[in-house]
Design a protein that fits this description.
- With 218 residues, this protein is mainly alpha-helical.
- Helix content is 71%, strand content 0%.
């Protein structure tokens, strides 16, 4: 565990994966490089284990965020926001964990399949049971929401100077929009495209009787 902590700290401090060499980790721990090789075959193996540990921590953060809400929709939203915050606060770890091409079957893949992904899928299944989204395989819905969270987290990390608001305002809006969009898509049903969505939204606006509601055309 001390070796993993040292490698993780080097990543976070340097913001550069190249700074995590076996020698650098050994120096940080206070041992010789051969001592590291007893536990890890090479640097890539060590980084894989760091990534696996990252996903374990991410799962803990997301589960804690969801457990603070009795309302399943609020729990799902909180989990998504916890994901984004954790990613931004651990930017280099997140980059290595999610944007490094690696083969299937690594420890990181196993942790992802067994923890964060699975537990968020359980939240989506509860939303299905409550009728928020159509019942079925939760995986496509999880992937949609995960893609949105990953996208906004990546943008916040790579382009922090863009006008994204304060206190994760952009992330709040994006996750809300995607969740509601998926729910509305299931309400409309069938082969939903831009035309069907536009028609549905305008009909709903017209039903509200707002004077500012644009007329429905076609």
């Amino acid at each position: 565990m001390e070796i993993l902590t040292a490698a993780t700290d080097l990543l976070l401090e340097s913001g550069d994966e190249s700074a995590v060499s076996i020698r650098a980790v050994a120096n940080r721990v206070g041992v010789t490089p051969p001592s590291i090789y007893i536990h890890f075959a090479d640097k890539d193996t060590l980084i894989d284990e760091v990534v696996a540990h990252y996903f374990t921590r991410l799962d803990e953060v997301m589960r804690k965020a969801g457990a603070e809400h009795d309302n399943t929709w609020e729990a799902a939203h909180a989990q998504g926001m916890a994901y984004v915050r954790f990613a931004v606060e651990n930017a280099e770890l997140y980059r290595v964990a999610t944007m490094k091409v690696c083969a299937e079957g690594t420890d990181a893949d196993e942790v992802l399949s067994d923890s964060a992904f699975v537990h968020f899928a359980e939240t989506i299944e509860r939303l299905m049971d409550e009728g928020f989204v159509d019942k079925g395989d939760p995986t496509p819905v999880v992937m949609e929401l995960w893609t949105a969270a990953h996208g906004v987290a990546t943008l916040m990390i790579a382009k922090p100077y863009l006008p994204m608001g304060e206190n994760y305002e952009l992330a709040e809006r994006v996750l809300t929009s995607v969740c509601l969009g998926r729910a509305i898509k299931d309400v409309i049903g069938g082969d939903v495209g831009p035309h069907e969505i536009r028609k549905f939204v305008l009909e709903q606006r017209a039903g509200l009787g707002s004077e500012s509601t644009p007329p429905i055309r076609g």
